[in-house]
Amino acid sequence: MTTKSFLTGEPPENAVLLFNGKDLSNWDSRKGGPARWDVTDGGITVVPGTGDIISHEKFTDFFLHLEFMEPDMPEATGQAKGNSGVYLQGRYEIQVLDSYGIEPPGRGDCGAIYDQFAPLVNACKPALQWQTYDVVFRATRVDESGNVIEQARITVFHNGIVIHNNVQVLGPTGGALDQNVAEPGPLLLQDHGNLVKYRNIWIVPLPLKGADKY
Predict the structure, then answer these.
(1) In Å, how far from its chain's centre is CA 51?
(2) Residues 89-133: pLDDT tens digits?
(3) d(C-alpha 153, C-alpha 168), whole Å
């Protein structure tokens, strides 16, 4: 059974379906060439050593839904326990980690905007359970000369719980695909050497602004 997004359920008609449950035709390897992660039982599993994968399509402002599952690694601790990451525009990492039961969660725990902002609360489920991220992303704003006038903003719901409330990031996080913050960017999923699984990945592009008229 597919986990439902608490906001929207199944992908709306205008969603960009990044993973169809069957293949990685919408993805490339960050190293170049096709993505080489495993596709089984309607999900994607990291193949350690094959590298990060990036979506073909690039985005500016958007709503993202995805689901992930942590492997059971009872002997591992810290950053070695089910590590991966979801990079918005390939630049801003939302950490994926088995941080179940850790209080208070820190800037490297699951749900953190990596090494910038800790999640407000620990919303993690135990390993081997599907979890959801629902993310509202507002891209960096620049002026006509390309100077940053407002950094990107991120709101994150983890398993239906608010863990970031319109946070203004400090800039791209470590491991970013590039620093071209004025440009659209892809979704990037990180190979950090652990068998993390993903499924039901889709994005709804958002307008950059609403109408000015009354």
Answers:
(1) 16
(2) 999 999 999 999 999 999 999 999 999 999 999 999 999 999 999
(3) 4
Look at residue 48 in the predicted model and tell me its pLDDT.
Answer: 97
Mean of pLDDT values over 66-79: 94
- What pLDDT score was predicted for residue 20? 85
Q: How many CB atoms lie within 10 A of CB 73?
A: 15
Exposure string for 9-44, b = 16+ CB within 10 A, e = fewer: eebeeebbebbeeeebebbbbbeeeebebebeeebb
Evaluate whether 96 touches 158 at the Cβ level (below 8 Å).
no
Q: Which residue's entry shows tokens 């629902």?
A: 134
d(CA 143, CA 149): 6
Lowest mean pLDDT among 2-6, 46-50, 54-58, 206-210: 2-6
Contact status, residue 123 vs residue 142, Cβ threshold 8 Å: no
Dump strand ranges (E) for 97-160: 130-138, 141-142, 148-150, 153-158
Nearest-CA neighbor of 37 among 173, 204, 203, 192?
192
Identify the CATH number of the domain defined by range 28-33+43-205. 2.60.120.560
- Percent of the chain scoring above 70 in pLDDT: 96
